[in-house]
Design a protein that fits this description.
With 110 residues, the chain is mainly alpha-helical. It is built from four helices and no strands.
């Protein structure tokens, strides 16, 4: 009986909402009252853009790089690769931390 009452209430509420929005349409957005000002600003921006395109580009001079005498000395050293034991230890630590976090989130009665 409660479900039937809930269904009837839901349908009645839906019908009421539909009829309310049907009688009171949403106001349409009006056009901006100052279209001339917006056009003026747009024209100013277009003029600035055109001016920046026609202006001479600024070239920043970079100092020449010094010649490398010993290329082997400049190569970056490769990072040491973790041994499989280190990876396994980290994996186990992460799993243990996750299990501890799950245990804290679980309710006591479960």
């Amino acid at each position: 009986m409660r479900r039937l009452t809930a269904w009837i209430g839901g349908v009645a509420g839906g019908i009421a909402a539909y009829s309310f929005f049907r009688r009171h349409p949403q106001p349409e957005p009006s056009s901006s009252p100052e279209p001339a000002e917006a056009d003026r600003r747009a024209e100013e921006l277009r003029a600035k853009l055109a001016e920046s395109r026609t202006a001479e580009p600024v070239v920043e001079e970079t100092p020449p790089e010094p010649a490398v005498e010993n290329p082997a000395a400049e190569e970056p050293q490769a990072e040491p690769v973790d041994s499989p034991e280190d990876v396994e230890e980290r994996r186990q630590r992460v799993h243990d931390e996750a299990r501890a976090a799950l245990d804290e989130m679980r309710p006591d009665d479960a």
